[in-house]
């Protein structure tokens, strides 16, 4: 059996999105121009991004028995991810209340719902899928106890764990050697390492901190400034972002991670090097911010390749 399936264990949320001219100050009310209900959640977003890039993708997570649960499952299946191992748990599904400003920035409030109950059944699902897994993707929107169990299971089977510590939280040093690749933004980097990645020197210092703790590869995303990569074998590179007019940055990071995993570990490209995966992921993330929504904004492989080909014209 080929080990190319991207297994994503994480959150599934219904995003309730409102657009405003500017964010309200504390105690202030502002008028939103519209309200939209859009399937999201960092785990589901990353699964959709991997599937849209062309990788075989399977989702592990949980939804509630409310009206949103079946919609969340249907949404990722329509984008190509397999949801057979998503549990349905009595109660509410996860909800994200998202406000998007005119400049394309966002503010998010998470209500865990069923995501907060991910545990034994989902861990058993991962154990079944590891035989075919090229990589396991994890984030911080499910219980930490579940994440650590997922990490230990994957590490015991020598399956690379790609971990996105978002929302940001301090990490137990004992768990870091179980992570193959950590993907995080500037804020998350500073929260975990105490180092603000302001320039090349501080980026290298932050990456060195993770590598010294047993992580094999570090990717620091820098928004409009691109991304930085360094690994335990001495590989290092920095890629610029692609200029676009942003509309909504909600799923840009998730798009980047899922796309990276698909190229690096999903068996979809002749060149599966970190550099090739980063180039594709950077292009996919750039395209994603040009559309409103989370999963709705994640581009298909053909669109990303066409976008990348513009560099050759």
Explained architecture:
There is one protein chain. The protein has 9 helices and 13 strands. It is of the alpha/beta class. The strands form 2 sheets. A 9-stranded mixed β-sheet has the order 5-4-1-8-9-10-11-12-13, with helices on both faces. It has a 4-stranded mixed β-sheet with strand order 3-2-6-7. Strand 8 (133-138), helix 4 (144-156) and strand 9 form a beta-alpha-beta unit. It starts with a strand and ends with a helix. The model has no long low-confidence stretch (mean pLDDT 94).
How are the secondary structure elements laid out?
Elements: E1 5-9, E2 13-19, E3 35-40, H1 42-52, E4 57-64, H2 67-78, E5 82-89, E6 94-100, E7 106-111, H3 120-129, E8 133-138, H4 144-156, E9 161-163, E10 181-185, H5 186-193, H6 200-212, E11 217-221, E12 227-231, E13 236-239, H7 252-265, H8 274-288, H9 301-309
Parallel strand pairs: 1-4, 1-8, 2-6, 4-5, 8-9, 9-10, 10-11
Antiparallel strand pairs: 2-3, 6-7, 11-12, 12-13
Helix pairs in contact: 1-7, 3-4, 7-8, 8-9
Summarize the structure.
The protein has 313 residues and is of the alpha/beta class.
Keywords for this entry:
34% helix, four-stranded mixed sheet, 313 residues, alpha/beta, nine-stranded mixed sheet, single chain
């Amino acid at each position: 059996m080929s080990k190319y399936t991207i297994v994503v264990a994480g959150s599934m949320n219904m995003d309730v999105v409102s657009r405003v001219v500017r964010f309200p100050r504390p105690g202030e009310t502002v008028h939103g121009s519209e309200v939209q209900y859009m399937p999201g959640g960092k785990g589901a977003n990353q699964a959709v991004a991997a599937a849209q890039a062309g990788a075989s993708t399977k989702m592990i997570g949980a939804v509630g028995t409310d009206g949103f649960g079946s919609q969340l499952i249907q949404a990722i299946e329509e984008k190509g991810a397999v949801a057979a191992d998503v549990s349905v748990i009595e109660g509410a599904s996860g909800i994200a209340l998202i406000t998007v400003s005119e400049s394309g920035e966002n503010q998010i409030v998470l209500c865990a719902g069923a995501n907060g109950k991910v545990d034994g059944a989902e861990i058993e699902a991962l154990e079944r899928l590891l035989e075919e897994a090229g990589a396991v993707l994890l984030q911080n929107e499910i219980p930490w106890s579940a994440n650590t169990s997922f990490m230990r299971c994957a590490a015991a089977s020598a399956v690379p764990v790609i971990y996105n510590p978002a929302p940001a939280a301090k990490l137990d040093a004992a768990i870091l050697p179980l992570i193959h690749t950590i993907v995080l933004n500037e804020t998350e980097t500073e929260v975990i390492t105490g180092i603000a990645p302001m320039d090349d020197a501080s980026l290298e210092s932050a990456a060195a901190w993770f590598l010294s703790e047993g992580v094999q590869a570090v990717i620091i995303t820098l928004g409009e400034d691109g991304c930085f990569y360094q690994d335990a074998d001495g590989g290092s590179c920095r890629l610029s972002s692609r200029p676009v007019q942003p509309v909504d940055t909600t799923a840009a990071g998730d798009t980047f991670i899922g796309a990276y995993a698909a190229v690096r570990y999903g068996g979809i490209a002749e060149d599966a090097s970190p550099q090739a995966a980063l180039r594709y992921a950077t292009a996919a993330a750039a395209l994603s911010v040009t559309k409103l929504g989370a999963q709705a904004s994640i581009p298909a492989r053909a669109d990303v390749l066409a976008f990348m080909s513009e560099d050759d014209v």
